[in-house]
């Protein structure tokens, strides 16, 4: 259930709460006023009884005491009613608090499930991109490479619509190494870093590295004719 649905349902459930609370508080206020009136009445009856008790007959004393007792009983009745109203208010509010706690718990569970699902999807997507990059890199072995940047990683990105800024091309390799790198980005060259700046492809179709940064192999411009990387050159000399 969406967050908005939880909120909407909860607001619907407490829509009548203010009116119910106001009604109960009004009743409690009325009981307070009645209790105060009875307390005043009891005080007056007690004062009158004390003042006249010596002159009252036994029957009159009993009647007077009965009036005081009835007034006390009425005060107790009002107090009990106030307690009942207070308990109703407490239970009313507590019910909505429990409802809110339950909705929050359900919402947190739903949110956690979505986060877990999103994390799994993200991991699968990253693994899929990584597998694709590995396949692309393996598929590039055996291609006919020329001593130029034809079909280089930089041009592949350009064909896909990505533009490399002039500032990146002018960067020193050490500056590029300090930049954050996508862990799924394929790496090249002797430095085992991602594609950047000018690159050249080794003309050995079996070259395990394939592409090299100009600066890493000591080039400033594109060489004419075929070009072989230092590793392949060394291997060919051994033969």
Automatic annotation (TrEMBL):
Q: Which residues bind Zn(2+) 2?
A: 202, 207, 229, 232
| Family annotation (SMART domains) | ING, PHD
Q: Where is the composition biased (Basic and acidic residues)?
A: 123-154
Q: Give yes or no: UniProt keyword Zinc.
A: yes
Q: Which SUPFAM superfamilies does the protein's record reference?
A: FYVE/PHD zinc finger
Q: Alphabetically list the UniProt keywords.
A: Chromatin regulator, Metal-binding, Nucleus, Zinc, Zinc-finger
Domain PHD-type residue range list: 186-235
Q: Where is this site: Histone H3K4me3 binding?
A: 188, 199, 203, 211
Q: What Gene Ontology molecular-function terms does this entry list?
A: chromatin binding; zinc ion binding
Q: Does the keyword Ion transport apply?
A: no
Q: Which GO terms describe its biological process?
A: chromatin organization; positive regulation of apoptotic signaling pathway; regulation of DNA-templated transcription
Q: Where in the cell is it found?
A: Nucleus
- Chain intervals for the UniProt region annotation (Disordered): 115-161
Question: Looking at the UniProt record for this protein, which Gene Ontology cellular component terms does it annotate, in alphabetical order?
Answer: nucleus
Amino acids binding Zn(2+) 1: 189, 191, 213, 216
> Domain comment text?
The PHD-type zinc finger mediates the binding to H3K4me3.
Family the entry assigns: Belongs to the ING family.
What does the function comment of this entry state?
Answer: Component of an histone acetyltransferase complex.
What does the subunit section of this Swiss-Prot or TrEMBL entry state?
Component of an histone acetyltransferase complex. Interacts with H3K4me3 and to a lesser extent with H3K4me2.
- The protein's name in its UniProt record: Inhibitor of growth protein
User: Which organism's genome codes for this protein?
Assistant: Sinocyclocheilus anshuiensis
Q: Gene name? A: ing5b
């Amino acid at each position: 259930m969406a967050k908005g649905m939880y909120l909407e349902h909860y607001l619907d459930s407490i829509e009548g709460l203010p009116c119910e609370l106001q009604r109960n508080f009004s009743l409690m206020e009325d009981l307070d006023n009645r209790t105060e009136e009875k307390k005043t009445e009891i005080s007056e009856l007690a004062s009158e009884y004390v003042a006249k008790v010596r002159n009252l007959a036994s029957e009159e004393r009993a009647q007077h005491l009965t009036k005081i007792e009835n007034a006390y009983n009425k005060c107790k009745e009002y107090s009990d009613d106030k307690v009942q109203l207070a308990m109703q208010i407490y239970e009313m509010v507590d019910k909505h608090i429990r409802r809110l706690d339950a909705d929050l718990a359900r919402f947190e569970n739903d949110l956690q499930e979505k986060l877990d699902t999103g994390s799994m999807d993200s991991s699968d997507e990253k693994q899929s991109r990584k597998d694709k990059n590995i396949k692309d890199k393996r598929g590039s072995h055996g291609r006919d490479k020329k001593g130029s940047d034809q079909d280089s990683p930089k041009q592949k990105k350009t064909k896909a619509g990505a533009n490399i800024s002039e500032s990146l091309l002018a960067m020193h390799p050490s500056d590029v190494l300090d930049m954050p790198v996508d862990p799924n980005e394929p790496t090249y060259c002797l430095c085992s870093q991602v594609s950047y700046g000018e690159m050249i492809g080794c003309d050995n179709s079996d070259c395990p590295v394939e592409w090299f940064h100009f600066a890493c192999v000591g080039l400033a411009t594109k060489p004419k004719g075929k070009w072989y990387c230092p590793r392949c050159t060394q291997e060919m000399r051994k033969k």
